[in-house]
Amino acid sequence: MSPGGHLVTTALACGAVHALTGSPALTAGLAAGGFLIDVDHAVDYVLVEGRRDLRPSAFLRYYLGGEARRVVLALHSYELLALLALLAWVTNSELGWGYVLGMLLHLPLDIVFNGKLVSRSLVPFYSLAYRWRAGFLTSRLVGGYAIAPSSPEFWDAFFQGAVATGAARGAPLPGQLLSLPRNRAALPLEESLT
What we know:
Strand order of the largest sheet: 1-2
Largest sheet: 2 strands, antiparallel
Number of helices: 10
Protein backbone atom coordinates (compact mmCIF):
# COMPACT_ATOMS: atom_id res chain seq x y z
CA MET A 1 0.00 0.00 0.00
CA SER A 2 1.17 3.53 -0.61
CA PRO A 3 2.57 5.54 2.30
CA GLY A 4 -0.36 7.92 1.95
CA GLY A 5 -2.78 5.01 1.99
CA HIS A 6 -1.29 3.86 5.28
CA LEU A 7 -1.45 7.41 6.62
CA VAL A 8 -5.15 7.75 5.77
CA THR A 9 -6.24 4.30 7.00
CA THR A 10 -4.23 4.70 10.19
CA ALA A 11 -5.62 8.19 10.85
CA LEU A 12 -9.17 6.89 10.39
CA ALA A 13 -8.51 3.92 12.67
CA CYS A 14 -6.91 6.19 15.28
CA GLY A 15 -9.92 8.50 15.21
CA ALA A 16 -12.28 5.57 15.69
CA VAL A 17 -10.22 3.99 18.48
CA HIS A 18 -9.87 7.29 20.33
CA ALA A 19 -13.61 8.02 19.96
CA LEU A 20 -14.51 4.55 21.26
CA THR A 21 -11.95 4.19 24.05
CA GLY A 22 -10.68 7.68 24.85
CA SER A 23 -7.25 6.09 25.36
CA PRO A 24 -4.31 8.22 24.19
CA ALA A 25 -1.91 5.29 24.72
CA LEU A 26 -3.96 2.88 22.60
CA THR A 27 -4.32 5.53 19.90
CA ALA A 28 -0.58 6.36 19.91
CA GLY A 29 0.33 2.68 19.69
CA LEU A 30 -2.05 2.25 16.77
CA ALA A 31 -0.45 5.23 14.98
CA ALA A 32 3.00 3.73 15.49
CA GLY A 33 2.02 0.23 14.36
CA GLY A 34 -0.14 1.40 11.49
CA PHE A 35 2.03 4.12 9.95
CA LEU A 36 5.35 4.68 11.73
CA ILE A 37 6.17 0.97 11.28
CA ASP A 38 7.38 1.97 7.81
CA VAL A 39 10.48 3.58 9.33
CA ASP A 40 12.17 0.24 8.65
CA HIS A 41 12.05 1.07 4.93
CA ALA A 42 14.26 4.08 5.67
CA VAL A 43 16.59 1.94 7.78
CA ASP A 44 16.93 -0.55 4.91
CA TYR A 45 17.45 2.30 2.43
CA VAL A 46 20.43 3.65 4.37
CA LEU A 47 21.94 0.67 6.22
CA VAL A 48 21.16 -2.28 3.92
CA GLU A 49 21.20 -0.62 0.51
CA GLY A 50 23.85 1.98 1.39
CA ARG A 51 21.89 4.88 -0.09
CA ARG A 52 23.01 8.34 0.95
CA ASP A 53 20.51 10.59 -0.81
CA LEU A 54 18.25 11.41 2.15
CA ARG A 55 15.79 13.61 0.30
CA PRO A 56 12.23 12.26 0.78
CA SER A 57 11.65 12.43 -2.99
CA ALA A 58 14.71 10.25 -3.71
CA PHE A 59 13.68 7.74 -1.06
CA LEU A 60 10.09 7.55 -2.36
CA ARG A 61 11.24 7.22 -5.99
CA TYR A 62 13.65 4.44 -4.98
CA TYR A 63 11.01 2.33 -3.24
CA LEU A 64 8.11 3.00 -5.57
CA GLY A 65 10.42 2.32 -8.50
CA GLY A 66 11.21 -1.18 -7.24
CA GLU A 67 14.93 -0.54 -6.93
CA ALA A 68 15.49 -2.29 -3.59
CA ARG A 69 17.83 -5.26 -4.02
CA ARG A 70 17.55 -6.43 -0.41
CA VAL A 71 14.71 -6.04 2.06
CA VAL A 72 15.16 -6.77 5.75
CA LEU A 73 12.14 -4.76 7.00
CA ALA A 74 12.58 -5.90 10.59
CA LEU A 75 9.34 -4.26 11.77
CA HIS A 76 7.24 -5.96 9.08
CA SER A 77 7.19 -9.51 10.45
CA TYR A 78 4.83 -12.07 11.89
CA GLU A 79 7.51 -12.99 14.41
CA LEU A 80 7.66 -9.45 15.79
CA LEU A 81 3.86 -9.26 15.81
CA ALA A 82 3.64 -12.47 17.88
CA LEU A 83 6.36 -11.30 20.27
CA LEU A 84 4.73 -7.89 20.76
CA ALA A 85 1.28 -9.45 21.25
CA LEU A 86 2.75 -11.72 23.94
CA LEU A 87 4.50 -8.77 25.56
CA ALA A 88 1.33 -6.65 25.46
CA TRP A 89 -0.64 -9.51 26.99
CA VAL A 90 1.90 -10.12 29.77
CA THR A 91 2.25 -6.41 30.62
CA ASN A 92 -1.35 -5.44 29.75
CA SER A 93 0.07 -2.37 28.03
CA GLU A 94 -2.40 -0.21 26.12
CA LEU A 95 0.45 1.22 24.09
CA GLY A 96 1.61 -2.30 23.26
CA TRP A 97 -1.89 -3.44 22.29
CA GLY A 98 -2.23 -0.33 20.13
CA TYR A 99 0.98 -1.16 18.27
CA VAL A 100 -0.24 -4.73 17.73
CA LEU A 101 -3.55 -3.41 16.38
CA GLY A 102 -1.64 -1.07 14.07
CA MET A 103 0.43 -3.96 12.73
CA LEU A 104 -2.77 -5.99 12.25
CA LEU A 105 -4.04 -3.12 10.10
CA HIS A 106 -0.79 -2.48 8.25
CA LEU A 107 0.41 -5.94 7.24
CA PRO A 108 -2.81 -7.19 5.56
CA LEU A 109 -3.08 -3.92 3.62
CA ASP A 110 0.49 -4.42 2.38
CA ILE A 111 -0.25 -8.04 1.42
CA VAL A 112 -3.36 -7.12 -0.55
CA PHE A 113 -2.25 -3.91 -2.26
CA ASN A 114 1.46 -4.65 -2.81
CA GLY A 115 0.61 -8.23 -3.76
CA LYS A 116 -1.06 -6.92 -6.91
CA LEU A 117 2.32 -5.64 -8.14
CA VAL A 118 4.46 -8.77 -7.78
CA SER A 119 4.43 -12.27 -9.26
CA ARG A 120 4.43 -14.19 -5.95
CA SER A 121 2.18 -14.24 -2.92
CA LEU A 122 3.28 -11.82 -0.22
CA VAL A 123 1.83 -13.91 2.62
CA PRO A 124 5.16 -15.68 3.35
CA PHE A 125 7.12 -12.49 2.63
CA TYR A 126 6.11 -11.04 6.00
CA SER A 127 7.96 -13.76 7.89
CA LEU A 128 11.40 -12.52 8.90
CA ALA A 129 12.66 -16.13 8.88
CA TYR A 130 11.42 -16.54 5.28
CA ARG A 131 13.23 -13.37 4.20
CA TRP A 132 16.38 -14.48 6.03
CA ARG A 133 16.34 -17.89 4.28
CA ALA A 134 16.11 -16.04 0.95
CA GLY A 135 19.13 -13.91 1.88
CA PHE A 136 16.82 -10.86 2.01
CA LEU A 137 17.14 -10.73 -1.80
CA THR A 138 14.15 -9.02 -3.37
CA SER A 139 14.37 -11.12 -6.53
CA ARG A 140 14.07 -14.35 -4.53
CA LEU A 141 11.32 -13.02 -2.29
CA VAL A 142 8.80 -11.49 -4.66
CA GLY A 143 9.73 -12.86 -8.07
CA GLY A 144 9.65 -10.73 -11.15
CA TYR A 145 8.02 -7.36 -11.08
CA ALA A 146 8.30 -4.02 -12.78
CA ILE A 147 6.89 -1.00 -10.98
CA ALA A 148 7.23 2.76 -11.07
CA PRO A 149 5.92 5.66 -9.04
CA SER A 150 2.35 6.45 -10.11
CA SER A 151 3.33 10.08 -10.70
CA PRO A 152 6.48 12.21 -10.93
CA GLU A 153 4.86 14.55 -8.38
CA PHE A 154 5.89 13.71 -4.79
CA TRP A 155 2.49 14.02 -3.09
CA ASP A 156 0.65 12.22 -5.87
CA ALA A 157 3.10 9.32 -5.66
CA PHE A 158 2.98 9.39 -1.84
CA PHE A 159 -0.78 8.84 -1.86
CA GLN A 160 -1.14 6.74 -5.01
CA GLY A 161 1.91 4.48 -4.60
CA ALA A 162 3.43 2.36 -7.33
CA VAL A 163 1.94 1.04 -10.53
CA ALA A 164 2.88 -2.00 -12.59
CA THR A 165 4.76 -0.99 -15.72
CA GLY A 166 4.54 -4.15 -17.80
CA ALA A 167 6.94 -7.01 -18.29
CA ALA A 168 8.63 -7.95 -15.07
CA ARG A 169 12.36 -7.73 -15.67
CA GLY A 170 12.33 -10.45 -18.30
CA ALA A 171 9.82 -12.64 -16.46
CA PRO A 172 6.48 -13.53 -18.03
CA LEU A 173 3.38 -11.81 -16.74
CA PRO A 174 1.10 -14.05 -14.64
CA GLY A 175 -0.71 -16.42 -16.98
CA GLN A 176 1.64 -15.69 -19.89
CA LEU A 177 3.32 -18.71 -21.51
CA LEU A 178 6.96 -18.69 -22.46
CA SER A 179 7.64 -19.32 -26.13
CA LEU A 180 9.87 -22.28 -26.95
CA PRO A 181 12.87 -22.01 -29.27
CA ARG A 182 12.13 -23.10 -32.86
CA ASN A 183 15.22 -25.29 -33.15
CA ARG A 184 17.48 -27.25 -30.83
CA ALA A 185 20.44 -24.98 -31.68
CA ALA A 186 18.68 -22.16 -29.82
CA LEU A 187 18.55 -24.21 -26.60
CA PRO A 188 21.18 -23.65 -23.92
CA LEU A 189 23.95 -26.30 -23.93
CA GLU A 190 22.59 -28.18 -20.87
CA GLU A 191 19.15 -28.57 -22.41
CA SER A 192 20.46 -29.61 -25.84
CA LEU A 193 22.33 -32.53 -24.29
CA THR A 194 19.16 -34.14 -22.92
